[in-house]
Each structure stands twice: as C-alpha cells, then as structure tokens.
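Anyone opening a protein record will find just a pair of labelled lines. The record below illustrates this layout.
***
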Amino acid sequence: MDITTVTSFRAARSRADLALAPGEAFMAGGTWLMSEPQPSTTGFVDLTAMGWPDLEVDEAGLRIGATCTIATLLDWARGAAGRRAAEGAASGGTSAVPGEGTVATSTHPAATGRWARADALPPVPESWRAVALVEPAANALLASFKIWSTATVGGNLCQSFAAGSMISLAVALDGVAVVWQPDGAERRMPVAELPAGNGANALAHGEVLRAIEIPAHALRAEALLQKIALAELGRSGAVVTGRVDDDGAATFGVTAATITPRVLRFAALPSAEELRERVEGLEGYYSDPLGAEDWRRGVSAVLAERIRSQLQESIAERADAAAVGDAATTGAIAASPAGAGDVSTSPAGTGNVSTGPAGTGGLSTGEAGASPADLGDGADAASPAPSDDGSARA
C-alpha cells in the first residue's frame, strides 16, 4: 500500500550509513513495512544494498545473512535434498526425501525452476541432516511464493510475530543473532531471546540484525518440525520442533503457541510423561481468534510427543543398522584366509551400513494429518477442526 508519511529513501552501503535520522526505519524485504500504514516513519534505509553474503558455510556451521530471502535459503536446502535423492536413487537405496527417488517440492505453485540459483550457493555438507527443516519451516509461513522471494530471514526474526516461521527454524537449531550496535560494537544473543512480545523484539534503537549463526552440531542432529493450525491454510497455532544431537542430548522448541519462544533441553530423549509435563507447564500460551490458550497448550504437548516417539524410533533403527554393519565387518574378518591378514573386499566386508530407511538418516514424512480425536477437545466448539500439515524429518 502507499505509505504516505514516507518522504525519503536511501540505500545503506557502509556501516556509517546505518546511523538513523529521526523518523527513519531500517527496511530489508519490506513485506510488512509496506503492508500497513507507518504513521511514525518518514524515511526508509535499505539494508539490501549492504551486500551481505546470503549464506556462508564453514566448519563452525552456517551463517545466514539477515538480508537473505526465504526463497534463497530454501533453494540452498533443496539443493541438498535433491543431491541426496539422486544419490539414493543411483545407489538403489531409499531416497532421503519424501517419495523414493524424487526431489521434495514446495506446496507453492511457482517454487519450481529455481535450481540454477541453488547451483551458485555454497554446498551443503552431507552430515547436515537438519537442513531438511528449512522447507517445512518455510511452508509454515502463511505467505505466497512472491513473499518468499522478497521477505528476508532477518526481517521475519525482527518482526517477532509469535508465528514467525524463521524464528521456529532458528530456535530449533540453537540459532544465534549477530547484532550490530550504533557505536560500532557487536553483540550476540540466542534467537530464542530476540522476540520480546508478539510483534516486538529486544533490539535497541539503531541496532541492526547482521546475521544468524547456526552451529554445526545442531545441523548434524536428527530433527523434526510439526505445525498445526485451526484452518488448512491458517496461521500457525503451534509449531513444535525437536532434535537429538550426536551426544544424545535432546532439545525441543515451542513457538507460535506461546507469545515468545520456549526451549526445553534434556541430557537424553525424555520419557513421554516428562516431556508432556514440561510442555504443558510452559508459560506464555495465549488466546486469540486463531486459537484458545488451552487448545494451544494441549496440541503442543501432542505434537511434542509425536516428535519424541519418531525420534526414539529413528534412534533405535540407526542403532540396529550400526549393529548389523558391525556384525558384517566382524564376520568378514573371520572369513579371511588363514594368515592372509587382510579384510575381505566383498560387500559383506566393507562395513557399510545399509542404504535403506534405517541407514539414510534423511528426510521422511510424518503423519499426514491430525484429527480432532488426536488433539483432544481443547478448541472452542465453534472453531473449525484443527488440521495438521504433517512433519518433516531431518
């Protein structure tokens, strides 16, 4: 819409350009700034001219530039999913994405034909299984593909709406916000602490979100995301994430159902009872026209248990696959000719884990939907039945 109060626009190309004049506001994609009147804003300062890299990959993890669009992040993640699908099909194993031998596609109609852009992005390390959370997180954002191509990851975080899907993603993976301060200094804070309310953040006047850093240990984890809304295409009523790191530590996140993100950490995957008590005991559940407080609390506990049980099954499957691989290796050594001292080079002696579902550690779909019986009767009787658009496993 026309923002009639704005009388100036300038592009920031250096850190000195980030000093705000009275009435100025930072703008990245501008999808929210241009969606409603901004009576206190008289000028926009464009952050996209700073030339920040969209995505940087190193041994420490992933660094997402605040001005990286959601579409670019999704292209990068899909590149990894496409490669894993091709490798799975070529090896005769099970694809690491939904649909054997296929590439996961978006629910948005114009999200195809973007692979050329993905080729120019940094490669995704093969061990980063949790990259598969990017697509369900993007799908949790109530927006068209046009918004995906304009809205930025940093803008979604700084807007700090309770249902912000990039917040769900960053919180799930222990994201850290890199903040530039007006005096030239820099500070870091967990993304989970960035939202200060529904539509309010913890940044001081003149501070800029420069990047989001995702640690490598979280990206290597097995992770799941589930979302539910009262309407099939409605804004998220609850988004729950869960992951298990290489050391067995488990982390669960609850967003959208609470005003600000809530994170639960465990030394190991908790029992069903312990997890339910912790989720239901969280503070911050709220009521609005898109969901009552008790409904949000109840469905969050249900989604958390689904994630917990799926993670538990996956851990058991991987343990079984590893045991089979160890047994095959031991058997091959025992079968070697006496005195040869060499391990057999036959398939049984390779020690490779099966490329089937238990050995891929890849992406798979969860339950296709949630019925009212699954989710209890916490919703208002006049409300439409909840619909769950499923889960994705990293």
